[in-house]
Amino acid sequence: MRLEEIINENKKNLNQTDMLIWKYILNNRGRIRRISIHELAKECCVSSTTIVRFAQKLGFDGFADLKSSLKHEENLENEQNQDIYKSLENFYSKTVSNLMKRNYDNASRLIREANRVFAFASGYVQSNVVQEIKRLFFYDNVFIYDIGGREEFYSILKTANKDDVFIFVSLSGESHSVTEFSLQLQLKGIPLISITRLHENTLASRSTENLYVFSEEFQVNADDQISFKSMLAYFLLVEIWYVNYRIYVKNEEKFLQQST
Fold first, then answer.
1. pTM for this one?
2. β partners of residue 145
3. Is the pLDDT of residue 80 over 60?
4. Which of 2, 71, 107, 224 gives a 20 to 30 Å CA spacing to 167?
């Protein structure tokens, strides 16, 4: 599990000082691998013990263990070949491998048990992802209702309750609409499934279930200033999640049959 994901999962246990340490690490990844715990403590104006406690809150034995995790992540990133085809091949392979290892049961359970399912996309590409979710789950008679904008969201919110579930698809998880809407759902205790890039973000921290994807930019030619960002991971995630949902439902039906 990448450090950004670990931070999101433990965000409720982190205080303001912990987040300041994390921000420094995030902005100085290369330097962190080389400095001592005392140097980091000095840079963050905290004690070495505070650094150790921060690392332990994330599940590491200490600062050295956290540094090893950062180095491992960097080594994985450096494996990417400069050749664009090889880079794409590596990215696609790692993406599929990572997504296949995820557990989607909680997200599938939320959909299975929901009275109504609503989906909101924060942009054009995200809207295409939502349409794919709707298309796939339609085969299982799961009808997902689009939320067109702010007025429609608040209209739906008036009657929404804990038996409903919302799906938000966002690249950053920080756009005004998703942060505003997710807060309202959190206050009412309504389940929320978020699909975002793998990095610390407000939407993921407020969600009942987070489905993360990796996104990466590719430069076709070394002397070319134009790069593109692959969005394939979003669609792969949706397909894998749907397959998991079908398996989840089948297993649930088998269990009920055996229980009767």
1. 0.68
2. 118
3. no
4. 2
